[in-house]
Amino acid sequence: MRKETVRMMKWMKMTWCEKKTAAAAGIALLAASLLLGGCQTRHKRIEIETTSAGAAGSAARGDALSAGGSPVAGSPQQGTIDIDTVYPQGKEDPAGTEGESTWVPEETTAPQEESTAGGDPSLVFENRDETVYVTASVLNVRASYSTSSQVVGTLNRGDSVRRVAYGAEWSRIVYGDGEYYAATEYLSAEQPETQSSPAVSDETETANQPAAADESTAADQPAAGASSGTISLDPDWEYADFSKVHSGSATLYRSEAAERKGITVCVNAGHGTKGGSSEQTLSHPDGSPKVTGGTNAAGAVYSSAISTGMTFSDGTPEAEVTLALALKLKAKLLAAGYDVLMVRESSDVQLDNIARTVIANQNADCHIALHWDSSTRDKGAFYMTSPDAGGYRDMEPVKSHWQQHHALGESLIAGLKNAGVKIFSNGTMDMDLTQTSYSTIPSVDIELGDKVSDHSDSALDTLAAGLLDGINAFFGQ
Ligand SMILES: [Zn+2]
How far is the CA of 371 from the centre of ligand 1 (A)? Predict the structure, then answer.
């Protein structure tokens, strides 16, 4: 207890301005653990700072997360709340966490880290607010500033992230739901050249392996996050040859939650393909003309391969907001046990609408494209339905799949509504889209609002929660 308190005092001194956030997060976690009864009697202590505290701290942190129902969620937790009981350092897993390998046993903690939670100048952080790029092929995103802390996800070469604090060894970055840490040495203000990836690769070159491998290597494996492999468009896949822009790749993340669902959700952050609007693709695979307007007018046989997207009234590009929401949804899905196929995780991916759709068709169980509409009246969320006009529903693959698309759309709208999101009219709008014209899995373009809708971080959290609720309902989870 004393040791922990001293560590926390040092930490508080170092970053006192975060104390309030930490306390708020701690109270939220405490409330969650109390609400979810059955845990509070065993788990008297909630450790929410990830330091090199070893088994006691990390295991307790795992408890706090499991009390919240998502052992791999890895939400940003810092600070320590002592209620009354302290688990002995280096002892076994406290009751109730068996089978949840979300914490690092003390034996795997490098001894030199014991001193780093204190006054080590390499761990002093300076506040920043800047965009940086990942220079490593795959960079671990960690719960804290230690290679023995939990991996909550990975970033790929060329990904852009917001850095909010800089340290000589570790940077604090915004990732998914909150703030995490990545090795400073692999973050650069300059955008690196990206190279196209092989068709499918499960190889991950993890950048921040500790220098001395041996036993600490195990601790640096993505234990609670998700491993990834990239997926490029295979020209043999159905409809692949209709795509014009496909040198980029999607990334498949496998959930490592205790209970995996065996369901892959494709999360498509709408837009974000440089030059995509100057290429044209067939609106329909059979060459028939579009039956409604949209980005391209009704009657058009060709559509832009992928459009740029709108700009919010406050000047924010739609593609930036769809990406921010996609990352939040990804984190929630992985924590809930879904595998996630991410079409785009940086400002540019060279995959047009057909390439995104075909990759989803072949590698996912549903496809959700995130968009905001171009109206300016905060009209609320809706999904695009397949029009019952001009023979659209008689054309394959629409004919065989439009009802699944609608069922998914209805579930998502119901989930958003439950989360308190404003819904437009009956939550639907007929639209002849390239995405649905080529989809062979349940596939929805969902518009989460429009140019004047709130797209703040908390609004996106609400949207992600609503979408997860809808996805659960659709799959009967
Ligand atoms: Zn859009």
Answer: 4
